[in-house]
């Protein structure tokens, strides 16, 4: 497979593909974190998660358009506003969806899966009606163009680096929220023993809604980040959904670190193999390996051994 | 005992429902529809096989597979490979650089038939493979997952991933599979031209026949102790396990049964429609199959047929006149069927139409004390009509 | 302990050195005890002593980290749950777990030890032998009149009896009951004690129970567990007088 490449070329291929993998990793991490906290907390899978991400992307697209037309002088900073807006829009819609739909399906995780799939169909078609079927892209501010030249052969694009930093910051923030804040303590209390948590006065329904909204909000941020490295179409979200599910399950559903590690592993494997065997086979092989491992070790990479 | 009288009453009522379906499919539709429309109905019916499998697997046993398209597709591809080989005889393909292999292989510079295509020269092997290949894959997946106690959401996600994998694989391996276009231009089955109106009508009737065969198999499983175990497992898995049942074996069985149904449906699809492509396998197609089952009523064997017919007819209708509205309708259907009527049409029928029937035909409701055959219903469905019999459940006779 | 000197083959159940840990926490720690045929043994102990876990280990619901469980000379730790059931161990859970949507008759029928394979369940027929067995058990568990009622309509106590009946129809040699009288009325408790007396004529019974009154009524011998270990063993009078037991129950 390495015929015709010198050692240094192979190393730079790994480095470049590794970096391309890191951009993918950033989107994966943000998507998967949102999905993981919802799954960990409520045991439900949000099939419309990809569409929430795309909602964040369209929010960013609209914000960039607004800045271009009305505040061109501040264009360099629009992304930060867009990211906050994307979070708020998606979190608000998430809270609404939880209130209208998810809470009625409590204890019926499989039905939640189907209902949120229905929601995803509606959201996709709504995007198609509003924004058209064509993919849209945002204009990057000038400081995000260009690349670092690490060596002669290895170039790292700034937008990719930027997205990765955002992903890591959010992952860190989420960690602090989950393990160092009152809200996080309550979430973990509800996860471990719902009736007991309720008995000590934790509003578990409120925690559910907040967690669902938070997960969707993070998907929105993922969408904002997504616009920095790719263009957005009505069904772009669907392309990521299977990978993201597998990442969450593979990482061990209730482990944030596991989610990050598995996002890293899957994105790296995929993008490295992509160079040698083309996109579709790389994807097939990655998914096959993941599914194979999950069949042998269904509890995922980092699951606690608990008494059930 | 009134138990057996009751079961007779039920059999007759159930018998009427089957008879009505047969009347609709065998007499009414062929009389009122032109061959083109009838062929469309046949195509919808091939999905009823999948929906029927989901009734057994998801409705009764609580195992939701989001990858039924995989088994449908495998059955369909097996049939398509046989038909394609027949269509690619050296005489028909003389203009190719390698005559005697399917055209898409020739376009992809293949010079000989891949090994896994070879057995599909044989019709009897193909018939075996239509059921065998899906069942084998289902067995492998089921064995790996169920013996390790993987179920629920995890199982759904993994089966969905498998649907994604197979689709990408088929599209990526164009030379071996025909790629995204699938296997097209199928002409004859053992020399019999399947593209004529007469052939398509004949195939329609074969499809209806196969469907009834599968319906009776499903009904047999449901009405035996096996069916009660499946539903009991769904409600109290541990009690079943500690009553001495190998729960995993039962789950593997029902998953394989669903795969077999889907495989037959896929093969019929290929015959009726004349081609097979990866778009019938993927994530979207697979999850749509669940809605056929859910709309009909996840516990109702006959509901599966009506669900598949109605959703697909509606889809064709919408796509012809308002294509942009269909995804909204479909989305609303998913949400509605889950939130508002989890027992689907069968549930609605039971609560609104059956009482009318009872009044119309003066059936004595009080004659049949508590119904013995009312097997466990899903917790989701438990809040309404708990003591009402499921449409096609009847109590096994006491001898 | 004199029991240990006897060959473990003499016992119906011999648990030796049984240990299980969850993430380092030893729920059951080097536990050994022996059951004679036709004995009624009650396991008592404070909350978290590992009583239910012991039942889980014997019936295969939880896998042991080390140690052995010999039942009628057969090693259970390597068997699957349904194989353990087939070798003659029945287990009742703490909360009644019966099939609510099936009738009492069908609940018992499902537990009837025949047609337990997939094909067997497909071929299973309700013949005379099944009906007789069901009716006999129904009488033992005081549910003859409710035979054709759905289990959902039974009272809490009746559901407990039904679950015991579902074990009886399997004709197990060892019955394990987890808190059989929890949530029962006084009258139901009396009847349950009576039921257990009938059962022990031809079964060995292992019970986990809190209610000391009830324990005194039924137990031949009592094993007191504390922090995953055996604290004391013997007749109810003997363990009640054991200073270690008094310390654990009253000392904190």
UniProtKB/TrEMBL annotation, chain A:
GO terms for molecular function: transmembrane transporter activity. It is a multi-pass membrane protein. GO terms for biological process: amino acid transport. Keywords: Amino-acid transport, Cell membrane, Membrane, Transmembrane, Transmembrane helix, Transport. Pfam families: BPD_transp_2. Its main location: membrane. GO terms for cellular component: plasma membrane. The chain crosses the membrane at residues 20-40, 52-71, 77-101, 153-178, 212-233, 239-263, 275-296. It is found in: Cell inner membrane. Coiled coil: none annotated. Belongs to the binding-protein-dependent transport system permease family. LivHM subfamily. This is Urea ABC transporter permease subunit UrtB. It comes from Marinobacter vulgaris. The lineage of its organism: Bacteria, Pseudomonadati, Pseudomonadota, Gammaproteobacteria, Pseudomonadales. The gene is urtB.
TrEMBL record, chain B:
Pfam families: BPD_transp_2. The chain crosses the membrane at residues 15-33, 45-67, 123-146, 153-172, 202-221, 242-262, 268-292, 299-319, 325-349. GO terms for cellular component: plasma membrane. It is found in: Cell inner membrane. It is a multi-pass membrane protein. Residues 367-399 are annotated as: Disordered. GO terms for molecular function: branched-chain amino acid transmembrane transporter activity. The keyword Cell inner membrane does not apply. InterPro entries: ABC_transp_permease (IPR001851), ABC_transptr_urea_perm_UrtC (IPR017778), LivM-like (IPR043428). Keywords: Cell membrane, Membrane, Transmembrane, Transmembrane helix. Its main location: membrane. PANTHER family: HIGH-AFFINITY BRANCHED-CHAIN AMINO ACID TRANSPORT SYSTEM PERMEASE, SLR1201 PROTEIN. This is Urea ABC transporter permease subunit UrtC. The lineage of its organism: Bacteria, Pseudomonadati, Pseudomonadota, Gammaproteobacteria, Pseudomonadales. The gene is urtC.
């Amino acid at each position: 497979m390495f015929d015709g490449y010198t050692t240094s070329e192979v190393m730079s291929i790994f480095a470049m593909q590794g970096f391309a993998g890191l951009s993918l990793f950033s989107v994966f991490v943000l998507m998967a974190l949102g999905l993981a906290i919802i799954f960990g907390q409520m045991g439900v899978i949000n099939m419309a998660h990809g569409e929430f991400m795309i909602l964040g992307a369209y929010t960013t697209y609209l914000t960039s358009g607004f800045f271009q037309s009305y505040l061109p002088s501040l264009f360099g900073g629009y992304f930060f506003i867009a990211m906050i807006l994307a979070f708020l829009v998606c979190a608000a819609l998430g809270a609404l969806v939880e209130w209208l739909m998810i809470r009625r399906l409590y204890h019926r995780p499989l039905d939640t899966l189907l209902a949120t799939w229905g929601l995803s169909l509606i959201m996709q078609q709504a995007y198609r009606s509003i924004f058209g079927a064509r993919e849209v892209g945002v204009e990057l501010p000038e400081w995000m163009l260009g690349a670092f030249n690490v060596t002669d052969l290895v170039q790292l694009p700034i937008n990719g680096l930027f997205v990765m930093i955002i992903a890591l910051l959010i992952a860190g923030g989420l960690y602090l929220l989950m393990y160092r804040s009152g809200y996080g303590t309550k979430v973990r209390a509800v996860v471990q023993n719902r009736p007991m948590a309720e008995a000590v006065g934790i509003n578990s329904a409120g925690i559910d809604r907040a967690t669902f909204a938070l997960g969707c909000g993070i998907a929105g941020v993922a969408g904002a980040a997504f616009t920095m490295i790719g263009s957005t179409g009505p069904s772009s979200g669907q392309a990521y959904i299977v990978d993201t599910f597998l990442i969450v399950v593979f990482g061990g559903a209730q482990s944030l670190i596991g989610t990050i590690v598995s996002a890293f592993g899957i994105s790296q494997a995929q993008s490295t193999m992509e160079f040698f065997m083309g996109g579709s086979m790389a994807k097939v092989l990655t998914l096959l390996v993941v599914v194979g491992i999950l069949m042998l070790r269904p509890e995922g990479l980092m699951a606690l051994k608990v008494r059930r | 005992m009134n138990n057996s009288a009751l079961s007779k009453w039920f059999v007759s009522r159930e018998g009427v429902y089957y008879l009505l379906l047969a009347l609709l499919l065998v007499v009414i539709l062929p009389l009122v529809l032109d061959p083109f429309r009838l062929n469309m109905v046949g195509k919808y019916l091939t999905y009823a096989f999948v929906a029927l499998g989901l009734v057994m697997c998801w409705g009764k046993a609580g195992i939701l597979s989001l990858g039924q398209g995989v088994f449908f597709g495998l059955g369909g591809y097996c049939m398509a490979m046989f038909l394609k080989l027949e269509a690619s005889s050296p005489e028909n393909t003389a203009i190719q650089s390698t005559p005697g292999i399917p055209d898409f292989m020739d376009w992809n510079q293949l010079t000989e038939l891949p090994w896994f295509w070879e057995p599909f020269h044989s019709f009897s092997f193909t018939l075996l493979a239509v059921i065998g290949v899906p069942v084998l894959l289902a067995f492998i997946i089921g064995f790996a997952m169920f013996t390790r106690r993987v179920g629920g959401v995890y199982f759904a996600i993994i089966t969905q991933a498998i649907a994604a994998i197979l689709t990408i694989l088929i599209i990526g391996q164009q030379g071996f599979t025909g790629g995204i276009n699938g296997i097209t231009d199928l002409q004859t089955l053992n020399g019999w031209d399947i593209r004529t109106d007469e052939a398509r009508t004949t195939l329609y009737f074969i499809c209806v026949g196969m469907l009834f065969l599968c319906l009776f198999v499903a009904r047999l499983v449901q009405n035996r102790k096996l069916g009660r175990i499946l539903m009991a497992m769904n409600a109290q898995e541990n009690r079943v396990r500690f009553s001495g049942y190998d729960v995993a074996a039962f789950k593997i069985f029902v998953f394989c049964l669903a795969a077999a149904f889907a495989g037959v449906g896929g093969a019929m699809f290929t015959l009726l429609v004349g081609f097979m492509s990866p778009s019938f396998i993927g994530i979207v197609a697979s999850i749509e199959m669940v809605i056929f089952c859910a709309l009909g009523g996840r516990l109702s064997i006959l509901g599966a047929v009506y669900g598949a017919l109605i959703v697909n007819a509606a889809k064709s209708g919408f796509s012809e006149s308002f294509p942009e509205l269909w995804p909204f309708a479909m989305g609303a259907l998913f949400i509605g069927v889950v939130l508002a009527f989890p027992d689907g049409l069968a549930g609605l029928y039971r609560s609104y139409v059956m009482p009318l029937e009872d009044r119309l035909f003066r059936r004595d409701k009080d004659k049949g004390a508590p119904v013995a055959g009312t097997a466990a219903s899903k917790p989701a469905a438990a809040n309404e009509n708990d003591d009402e019999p499921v449409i096609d459940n009847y109590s096994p006779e006491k001898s | 302990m004199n029991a240990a000197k006897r060959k473990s083959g003499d016992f119906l159940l011999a648990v030796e050195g049984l240990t299980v840990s969850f993430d380092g926490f030893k729920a059951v720690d080097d536990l050994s005890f022996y059951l004679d045929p036709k004995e009624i043994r009650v396991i008592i102990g404070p909350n978290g002593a590992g009583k239910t876990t012991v039942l889980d280990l014997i019936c295969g619901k939880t896998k042991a980290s080390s140690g052995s469980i010999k039942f009628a000379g057969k090693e259970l730790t390597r068997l699957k749950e349904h194989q353990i059931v087939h070798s003659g161990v029945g287990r009742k859970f703490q909360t009644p777990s019966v099939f609510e949507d099936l009738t009492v008759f069908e609940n018992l029928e499902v537990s009837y030890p025949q047609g337990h394979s997939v094909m067997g369940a497909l071929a299973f027929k309700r013949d005379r032998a099944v009906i007789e067995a069901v009716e006999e058990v129904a009488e033992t568990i005081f549910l003859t009149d409710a035979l054709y009622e759905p289990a959902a309509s039974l009272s809490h106590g009746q559901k407990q009896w039904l679950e015991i009946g579902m074990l009886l129809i399997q004709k197990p040699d060892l019955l394990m009951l987890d808190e059989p009288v929890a949530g029962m009325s006084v009258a139901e408790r009396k009847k349950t004690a009576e039921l257990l007396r009938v059962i022990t004529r031809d079964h060995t019974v292992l019970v986990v129970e809190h209610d000391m009154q009830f324990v005194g009524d039924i137990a031949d011998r009592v094993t007191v567990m504390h922090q995953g270990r055996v604290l004391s063993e013997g007749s109810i009078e003997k363990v009640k007088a054991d200073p270690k037991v008094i310390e654990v129950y009253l000392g904190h």
